[in-house]
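By convention, each integer encodes one residue's backbone shape. The lines below illustrate.
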Amino acid sequence: MNLDIFHDATLLTLSFDYENGEGEITLKTQSNIVKLSVYNIQEAIIPRANPWGKSISINEIIYDSEVLKIQMQSGDLIKINCKLQT
């Protein structure tokens, strides 16, 4: 999956099933709603400090070595150690 298409997408929801280690990330692009499924979640860090100012838009998403990083345009970096279902 090409994650570059999510630049300027809106982060709508992050939901996690703690017991099963699964989750879903809902994004809104210019043309549609996209749901990313993650599983085998080991850790999730979800800051909301807004160091660059408030924003719910995504700067970039990177998935490497089973770490999903969502860089928000607020300056926050969401990190989820997981597997991404493509």
